[in-house]
Amino acid sequence: MALMDMLLKELNGDITEGEQEEKTSQKDYERLMSDSQATRAQNAKSITDKEAAKADMDTAIEQTKGKLDSQQIGRAHV
C-alpha cells in the first residue's frame, strides 16, 4: 500500500511539473511570436524605405543622364 501511495505522489508531482513546463513553454512561445511579428514589421518597413530610396536614386540617375545627353547634343551643334 505504501508503494502505491509513493507512486501516486510521484505521478502527481510529475503531472504538476508537466503542467508548469507547459505554461512556461506557452508563454515563451507567445513572446517569441510577438517578437517575430515586431521584427517582420520592422523588416518590411526597412525594405519599403530602401525600395523608395532606390526609386528616388533611379529617378535622379535618369534625370542626370537626360541632362548629360542634352548637353552633349548642344555641344555637338556648336
Task: Please describe the structure with a list of short key phrases separated by commas or semicolons.
rod-shaped; single chain; 78 residues
Can you give a write-up of this model?
This protein is mostly helical. The chain has 1 helix and no strands.
Q: Give me the Rg, rounded.
A: 33 Å
Structural class: mainly alpha
Q: Percent of residues in helical segments?
A: over 70%
Number-wise, the strands total: 0
Poorly predicted residue ranges: none
Topology, pairings included?
Blueprint: H1 2-76
Summarize the structure.
This protein has 78 residues and is mostly helical. The chain has one helix at residues 2-76.
